[in-house]
Amino acid sequence: MAGRHERGAPAAVGFDAAADRYDDDERENPVLSHMRARAFEELCAAFAPGARLLELGSGTGTESARLVRERGCRVALLDVAPRLLERAATKVRQAGPGGLLGAHALRAAAVGSLVANYGPASFDGAFSSFGPLNCEPRLEPVAAGLGDLVRPGGAVVLSIINRWCPTEVGWYALHRQWRAASRRWGGPIEAAAFPGGPKDVTTWYYARRDVERAFSPLFATEHVEALPLLWPPPYLDFLVLRHPRIFRALEPLERWASRRPLLRELGDHTLFRLRRL
Fold it and tell me: Would the pTM count as exceeding 0.90?
């Protein structure tokens, strides 16, 4: 799933156009459900109950609302798509009184501007799930902004679409779609905000070293895993729907292998837990 562009850009319009279908699409996609469950486990491991958090690229607010409802967290939301942001804010308000700290129509690279709203080191942590940061041509401004907003010792959890995904390469190579097989290796590509939608989202792919290089002056890496590794990317969910027993049987191996050295850098997404120094 690609990230979101700044307000007013075609990509923001595309994501807003998909706002009514986002949650339904995810519920019907077993790969996204698998990824969401694993990502939420990492959020719970990283953030204490009652934490003050910031979500970059909130989408419809699924994870923020769950953190408010189940963990008593308070969350500030950031997204460039106004309708998605509105849905997320409503969902978080309904999840618990006082759970919404604010909702901001901003791209991730502008997160540092929120210091004026909340003050420096005012958050216990931050997170961004399933690729919003892949709409940023550079991650350094995101890292600098989070460095200003997250207190020392706070955690940042990011799932970023990876540059190296053997399952995707294998699928497209099997079907002799060579250009698609190598699409992540060059510069940015134009992707769709939702299946079958217009390709109006400029997407950059980041390897582990790219992420760590951008965040390393202010953050240390604590945990890395592939998300997913042996399961296919979300757009190949029909494979899981056709063969559910095979992929259920693979799940324990998937969880183990996705955290092994080298293998953890080969998923569709890479899930990071970083610690503010």
Answer: yes
